């Protein structure tokens, strides 16, 4: 039963508009979107096949059969490869895919592929495998459908946000004890994992690559003082100093859906320049509230930020973007910048993170929340205290 | 100073043999191999450029400048994009790459690309950007060079193995308390993170994708009883039952290098069929010891496993492979199967994991270690107890 997922209906509508007869997804986030299955280890391709007319099919290596059947909402599961006593369609995914498309008389069809993800070598395999088909790029189409989340995805995003909040609570409490970046990060991750143990049916795995696999995606990192200018780094044993700021970043995942929360925390009272930057950002965030509702052009959030930063004397420090969409990826495709043409709709999920970097004055902020657009306006999914924080 | 890294010398020798003038790497594991920089978040491409004649260059988005300079062993770092007051080569990586290749008079050269990783859309951008160049596949060449590890990589693999051992110790101790899969996994991960806090200069980040980023790659998972037949799954709240087996899987990472350790642990005495399977696997592992040295064809390890399984009555249960190479990927390219043409050399790193699945009898084993080939033979990098384990 996939009819319940409006993302499948919306994907098919988009395919019809673009003249695509069947969509073939290898990208982990996208094959999960269409099937609900994350094998964690992707050494053997997981292929989601969505015909414009008909139900989706899932093509798996035989060793993923038991796992796939237990987790996918797709009932038409096909196997390739050799494993134990499993009967398969042939030794490779190519055998399986060719047979499935022939069976559905789609081997001469217009096939949507992920041109932003499919390696050029695999593309050549596909053109050799399906000489009478037309392969056409569908990455933008898929990204657009992913902008709006289904109710089941929103349930999971709320759980991810609850885990992230728990991680932030633990991180700020640990930072209050003046512990190192790495201790704050690892104790916060341990707190999220403890909270996960109280959520029976939730997976905390993320989406892997050909060479790896992400068993656990409950992550905290921390950058103190001038290390904030690195923007991202693995935590070190650096201790916080009085009068500097620390930024804590958290990503959490629940059944594939992500939440992000970030806070800049003062270690004792801050110099005026740093405090003023934080207060300015908090004012900008508050001013966005009436705009965050269906019908607002997403770029308006950016323009409001730019205008308020200019008015506060930060015209030289306008950020390139003030957030990004989020969902099956921690960083999904659309940026909250001045160029996006996206208009907010109910079910969209994004991070709101207008921030400042003024290296010459040692000033940086990193405050972010995960926000859902609702019919009535919006809802902060991450709820840890959002005001000025000092420990 | 990159002359110290024999991987750069070996890569250039392989490029010369294949007539490649310059190698351009976007794949995180490979750009790290050539530059030592992992930005963790790869939303903006990180491009490693290795000319056959000359030093490597690293092309980064300006926001990664401070981070990249602090961590890369490459001194020639170039920037694209806009960030703060940074001066860049242009708004996109394409601007930077075109200018660098023109400056090095390599814009009409034979350029090695990662055809197993580069998306078809990016390949089209590359052919438009460099109309007079010849793009040629170099994925197999790079994978082959990665088979042999440099001394600095082996130092890091040993640290990863020490973290993995600590995780296994904690997992087995926790399993002895009859706790759930998820508690065993999360407490083991917490133990690895505590051990990491005692290693000042080590990063525990893994390699990310366009939509994510892996802040922490110290992972444990556990499958109890018949859940072992899923081969991989996120841990659940299932408790162990007396007389069944549990498998614990651990991946750890230190500065990009991975180690793997896996153990099947008996929950009290096992039925004869399960015990006999474990004992057979332990005998096979012991019998491999004299083969694991420079000069052995890797396929011999597989053939010995096959012969011994047949002799023990498991002819219907021969696995497809009995391990894989490991390094910057937890699963690198080469499988320990009957078809590989790799001959063992000093510096090679692989997992040894002959295992059994006999679903009809509820029998499964999952025992793995990370093994380094040395001049004298081999060394187990993971050292947690390798015999029959019962708690």
Automatic annotation (TrEMBL), chains A, B:
Pfam families: Creatinase_N, Peptidase_M24. Residues 7-148 form the Creatinase N-terminal domain. GO terms for molecular function: aminopeptidase activity. PANTHER family: AMINOPEPTIDASE, XAA-PRO AMINOPEPTIDASE P-RELATED. Coiled coil: none annotated. The keyword Protease applies. CDD domains: APP_MetAP. It comes from Gluconacetobacter liquefaciens. This is Aminopeptidase P family protein. Keywords: Aminopeptidase, Hydrolase, Protease. SUPFAM superfamilies: Creatinase/aminopeptidase, Creatinase/prolidase N-terminal domain. Residues 158-374 form the Peptidase M24 domain.
């Amino acid at each position: 039963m996939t009819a319940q997922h409006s993302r499948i209906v919306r994907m098919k509508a988009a395919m019809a508009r673009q003249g695509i007869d069947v969509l073939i997804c290898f990208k982990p986030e996208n094959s999960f979107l269409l099937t609900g299955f994350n094998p964690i280890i992707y050494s053997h391709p997981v292929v989601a096949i969505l015909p414009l007319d008909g139900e989706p099919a899932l093509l798996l290596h035989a060793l993923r059969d038991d796992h796939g059947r237990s987790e996918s909402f797709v009932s038409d599961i096909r196997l390739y490869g050799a494993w134990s006593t499993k009967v398969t369609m042939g030794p490779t995914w190519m055998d399986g895919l060719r047979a499935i498309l022939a069976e559905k008389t789609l081997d001469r069809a217009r096939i949507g592929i992920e041109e932003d993800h499919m390696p050029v070598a695999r593309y050549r395999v596909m053109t050799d495998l399906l000489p009478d088909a037309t392969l056409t790029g569908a990455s933008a189409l898929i990204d657009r459908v992913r902008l709006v989340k289904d109710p089941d995805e929103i349930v999971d995003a709320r759980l991810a946000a609850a885990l992230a909040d728990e991680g932030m609570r633990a991180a700020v409490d640990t930072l209050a004890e003046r512990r190192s970046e790495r201790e704050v990060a690892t104790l916060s991750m341990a707190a999220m994992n403890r909270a996960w143990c109280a959520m029976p049916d939730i997976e905390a795995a993320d989406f892997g690559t050909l060479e790896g696999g992400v068993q656990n995606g409950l992550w905290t990192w921390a950058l103190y003082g001038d290390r904030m200018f690195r923007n991202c780094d693995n935590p070190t044993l650096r201790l916080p100093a009085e009068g500097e700021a620390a930024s804590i970043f958290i990503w959490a995942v629940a059944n594939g859906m992500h939440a992000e929360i970030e806070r800049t925390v003062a270690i004792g009272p801050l110099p005026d320049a740093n405090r003023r930057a934080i207060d300015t950002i908090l004012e900008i965030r508050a001013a966005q509230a009436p705009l965050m509702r269906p019908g607002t052009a997403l770029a308006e959030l950016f323009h409001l930020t730019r205008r308020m930063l200019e008015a506060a004397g930060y015209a030289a420090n306008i950020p390139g973007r003030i957030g990004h969409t989020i969902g099956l990826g921690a960083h999904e495709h659309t940026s909250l910048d001045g160029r996006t043409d996206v208009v907010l709709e109910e079910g969209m999920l994004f991070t709101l993170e207008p921030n400042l970097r003024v290296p010459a004055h040692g000033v940086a902020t990193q405050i972010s929340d995960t926000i859902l657009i609702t019919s009535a306006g919006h809802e902060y999914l991450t709820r840890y205290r959002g005001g000025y924080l000092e420990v």
